[in-house]
Amino acid sequence: MRVVPAPARSAVVRDRDRSTRALRVTTHPDAGLVVLSLWDGDVCTTTLRLDPADAADLVRALTDAAVAAAPRAQRPPLGPTTGEVAAAS
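The structure assignment produced for this chain is given below.
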């Protein structure tokens, strides 16, 4: 399949490692669909047509995966540590 102009309701996410590869997300409210398509250059290699509820599940899964994959920052303890006394207000 060759490249066609993206509908107005779309987003493109580029592959981190291969600059020619991208994921296009398009919404088709008239058909009640969210379509994910993988592109390599100007060629669509595959598509996945989702119901909006399934797309919401995908967003939750992606959010959970992003949180799990993010580096953990060292945070100071919230309260006093052993041997310390909290100041009275």
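Interim note for the steering committee: The chain has a mean pLDDT of 84. The CA atoms of residues 16 and 72 lie 21 Å apart.
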